[in-house]
User: Fold this.
Amino acid sequence: MASGRRSKTSAPTAAERTPDYRQRRFGFQHLRDYGIAKGTAEFNIGRAFPDRRDRIDALLAEGEKVWMHFELVGTNTVNLYGLPPTGKRVEAPEIGIMRIVDGKWKDSWYFGDELGLMLQLGIVDVLRSLADSKS
Assistant:
């Protein structure tokens, strides 16, 4: 079912989740893992794009499963996992798959286009320069 162009809400609140709720994958998992390894996890996607809006492009529900295609839209004005802000505006697609049991979130899984995001920000060149300087 097409949703038009509404904005995705934030993460489910504790009241909206089952006690054993589990987020199995974060949208930009590799960037998140990089931030954790570098000790810069607090400079996450949400913080690096303070004007972030997640625009829902499609939503489909069947049984306990909900599939959502959305786009992260925002401007990088704060460090992204320790990488300097670029001031660039990006649009990066993401997919979310959620399982809802008895009206509460049980599981969620997200996949974002990390390479597309990094190319839009010019981060690939920054990471290449960092790697070259350590060689």
